[in-house]
Amino acid sequence: MASTSILHFRPLFLFVLVASLRCGAAAGDVDGGEGFCSAEPSSECSGGPPLYWKATHPTLAPAHLQDLPGFTRSVVKRDHALITPESHVFGPLPDWINTLGAYLISPSIGAHFTMYLANMQDGSKSALPPKDVERLVFVLQGGISLSVGAGTTHSLLVDSYAYLPANIKHSMISDESTTLVIFERRYSATEDFHPDLIVGSTDKQPLLETPGEVFQLRKLLPTSLPYDFNIHIMDFQPGEYLNVKEVHYNQHGLLLLEGQGIYRLGDSWYPVQSGDTIWMAPFVPQWYAALGKTRTRYLLYKDVNRNPLI
């Protein structure tokens, strides 16, 4: 009798489940709710959100899963990790003023760099990194005023960035709600090379050739020897994918800024979407395919220009 009742209500359950996945169906889904590989939001659900809005306001999970206690898509393994927004833990950043941070990648996971989010508000101010540590700041939401040295000030808005060489005096101040993604690592000095301060924006960087590949590539830093890492911005149109399954000595830290797709790491395959972070250890097999109906854009840290024996 019990099994007959379950079968009787199954069509109703499926109807409710499908309805809950439609745009805006979930309670609290203020962004119009885009689940994995969903179609573009309809006009009634879209209001022209700002660039990278989904990276800072991601869909945490399908509507029928996001309220389950203990639910997360995050996975941490020996040679890679997927860190998803529902598992972020924010706390006060040491010595920063009125700023909460969430460390996504750090040496404790096996990386030689840190990657973290910094949420600033009106009156927030940054602190300096430790001695001999270089820093790259990329604005995801809002904007900051960056002061470097004695009197030089730069205004950084969404899609802008700054590379700050180790031991350079600087401060960042925000007077609005701002989200930064920050990369830091201990600078690997070599001979008499000294990197320069760089301030720029993604749209000012030229597209580079990618022989044998279809994605679009921009590099935010020079490729010259003074720089021991670079940040790549990679764009994939729907259906595009990496032609080569890469295996190399470089480490990666990745933040998905737009879109959704499938990432292969080692022998595992992960659905990923805006707001997800990935750490890739040296020599882990890696591959990506863009799915959905909008482009994928991700930001990728890569160590360069140094002998791996050092």
TrEMBL record:
<dbReference type="InterPro" id="IPR013096">
    <property type="entry name" value="Cupin_2"/>
</dbReference>
<dbReference type="InterPro" id="IPR044697">
    <property type="entry name" value="UGlyAH_cupin_C"/>
</dbReference>
<keyword id="KW-0732">Signal</keyword>
<feature type="signal peptide">
    <location>
        <begin position="1"/>
        <end position="27"/>
    </location>
</feature>
<dbReference type="InterPro" id="IPR044704">
    <property type="entry name" value="UGlyAH_cupin_N"/>
</dbReference>
<protein>
    <recommendedName>
        <fullName>Cupin type-2 domain-containing protein</fullName>
    </recommendedName>
</protein>
<dbReference type="InterPro" id="IPR011051">
    <property type="entry name" value="RmlC_Cupin_sf"/>
</dbReference>
<dbReference type="InterPro" id="IPR014710">
    <property type="entry name" value="RmlC-like_jellyroll"/>
</dbReference>
<dbReference type="Pfam" id="PF07883">
    <property type="entry name" value="Cupin_2"/>
</dbReference>
<feature type="domain" description="Cupin type-2">
    <location>
        <begin position="233"/>
        <end position="299"/>
    </location>
</feature>
<dbReference type="InterPro" id="IPR017627">
    <property type="entry name" value="UGHY"/>
</dbReference>
